[in-house]
Design brief:
Oligomer: single chain
Enzyme class: transferase
CATH class: Alpha Beta
Shape: globular
Protein name: 1-acyl-sn-glycerol-3-phosphate acyltransferase
Order of helices and strands: HHEEHEHEHEHEHEHH
CATH topology: Glycerol-3-phosphate (1)-acyltransferase
GO biological process, one term: phosphatidic acid biosynthetic process
Radius of gyration: 19 Å
Keywords: Acyltransferase, Lipid biosynthesis, Lipid metabolism, Membrane, Phospholipid biosynthesis, Phospholipid metabolism, Transferase, Transmembrane, Transmembrane helix
Number of helices: 9
Largest sheet: 7 strands, mixed
Number of domains: 1
Strand order of the largest sheet: 1-7-6-2-5-3-4
Number of strands: 7
GO molecular function, one term: 1-acylglycerol-3-phosphate O-acyltransferase activity
């Protein structure tokens, strides 16, 4: 009976309220985009929308190590992707304006997609190499102009709560702009709303911030090596606090990975 009541609460209260908030706040964001040149008003709408969703679903978020967020300027903040709750959690928690690199499919949704396009978020189209490169260069220009980027380097939500391999595109952006990478880990969003589910289970979230990783000395062709470094940092933050079990790693693969990560980037030619 408790499980049935929880599902009914999700289907007939939580989910309809999320759609209502999205329609109202999305419309406000679209209207503000007509005169909001620097995106501050649109970001306020996104942040307020996020807080409304988390408040209604009884999912408060706490930042662990908030002092590590600040690196003296713009940065690329990389974070694991677990749930539809991830974007609202990041908007509600992060106390500064940023832009998101997201897969092109999100930009096709009514209201949400319109907001993403009008507010300067960066669509990534992996099937089209030329379009993808154009998006990466746009993200690099955004960083150079002083606005931070938030990216999900896994490329999509995890189906089982475990970290998926990191793709190199966002690290190419960081190297081109010569901006640091800040690893972050979301805890609890998978348990609250896993992929392909509409059953919201209220719980507290954590956003854990790690030490910044410098891009100095890296060339764009070394983006995969930098991705592996960031992946290890996010994995340590995540599995040290999450209820999700860390997958086993083959010893030979782990030894090879360690050897690759301990090489100096300047020694790569």
């Amino acid at each position: 009976m408790p499980a049935l009541l929880s599902r009914l609460r999700s289907y007939f209260f939580y989910v309809p309220m999320v759609y209502l908030y999205t329609a109202i706040m999305g419309a406000g964001s679209l209207i503000s985009s007509l005169f909001d040149r620097d995106g501050r008003i649109q970001h306020w709408f996104a942040r307020t929308w996020s807080k409304m969703i988390l408040g209604t679903a009884s999912c408060p978020v706490t930042i662990i190590n908030p002092e590590k967020l600040y690196v003296g300027g713009a940065a690329v903040y990389v974070v694991n992707h677990l749930s539809a709750f991830d974007i609202p959690t990041l908007y509600a928690a992060l106390p500064f304006q940023f832009r998101i690199m997201a897969k092109k499919e999100l930009f096709r949704y009514p209201v949400l997609g319109w907001h993403l396009s009008r507010s300067g978020q960066i669509p990534i189209e992996r099937e089209n190499a030329r379009a993808s490169l154009k998006s990466l260069m746009k993200a690099s220009d955004t960083l150079k102009a002083g606005t931070s980027m938030v990216v999900f380097p896994e490329g999509g939500r995890s189906p089982n709560g475990q970290l998926q391999p990191f793709l190199g595109g966002s690290f190419y952006v960081a190297i081109k702009a010569q901006k640091p990478i800040v690893p972050m880990a979301l805890i609890g969003t998978y348990e609250a709303l896993p992929m392909n589910s509409f059953h919201i289970r209220p719980r507290a979230f954590q956003l854990v911030i790690g030490d910044a990783i410098s891009t100095a000395g890296y060339a764009p062709r070394e983006m995969d090596k930098l991705a592996a470094l960031a992946e290890d940092a996010v994995a340590e933050l995540y599995y040290s606090r999450s209820t999700i079990e860390r997958p086993a790693t083959e010893p030979a693969d782990e030894a090879l990975r360690h050897a690759q990560l301990t090489e100096s980037p300047e020694g790569q030619g």
